[in-house]
Amino acid sequence: MNTDPAEAITHSWLDDAHALVAGSLFVALGMTMFSYAGLLTGGVAGVAFLASYATGSSVALFFFLLNLPFFGLAWFRLGTEFTLKSFAAVVLVSVCTALAPKVVRFEFLNPWLASVLGGFLIGFGLLALLRHGASVGGVNIVAQWLQQSRGLSAGKVQMAVDVLVVLAALVVVPPARVLQSVVGALAIGAILALNHRPGRYLGV
């Protein structure tokens, strides 16, 4: 049965706030799992992981700084509300990722489990943010813009870029970790590709 777009339910500020916090926590926990397992993800987060592994500095700091340039596109193409929500999400993810080692410990974490479960956590976190008009910056902003302006699937765009970034890490990361990271990137992209399609979700 088709739903009339006019019947779409408008999100309240409380709905948006809940999704912003929950989505950011999911993404931060997934990134923490990836970090403990020595994995990578795609997009800006993947570059942040590479920079962190190479320098020993905080992945949260690199994630925040590398995301800043993308907010220009968001401001001019996706609107003020989307930009402010996304900036808040990036700040939350950065802070939660930085604090995670103080409150979450993985004494043993199988990399294959981390790639799938961490990927699903990140994917669901991104899905919650996107459905409430936000993102975690970087490629996610570009993917959302392409879906709105060109009708391309945000999930497929995210998946393609993520896999390319992870494969580019072959020069830095052992092949086994790269393969596990590709599985993680596919897990993230699958959640978005299957659940974030134009016209499928009518909440605004």
Secondary structure layout:
Elements: H1 13-37, H2 43-55, H3 59-67, H4 71-78, H5 80-103, H6 111-130, H7 139-150, H8 154-168, H9 175-195
Provide the gyration radius in Å: 16 Å
Order of helices and strands: HHHHHHHHH
Q: Please report the total strand number as a whole number.
A: 0
List segments where confidence is low: pLDDT < 50 over at least 5 consecutive residues. none
Shape: globular
Tell me about the largest β-sheet: none
Question: Per DSSP, what share of the residues sits in E-state strands of 2 or more residues?
Answer: under 5%
Explain this structure to me?
The protein has one domain. It is 72% helix and 0% strand. The chain contains 9 helices and no strands. Helix 1 crosses helix 5. The longest helix is centred in the N-terminal third of the chain and has 25 residues, at 13-37.
In short:
With 204 residues, this protein is mainly α. It contains nine helices and no strands. The protein starts with 12 loop residues before the first helix and ends in a 9-residue tail after the last helix.
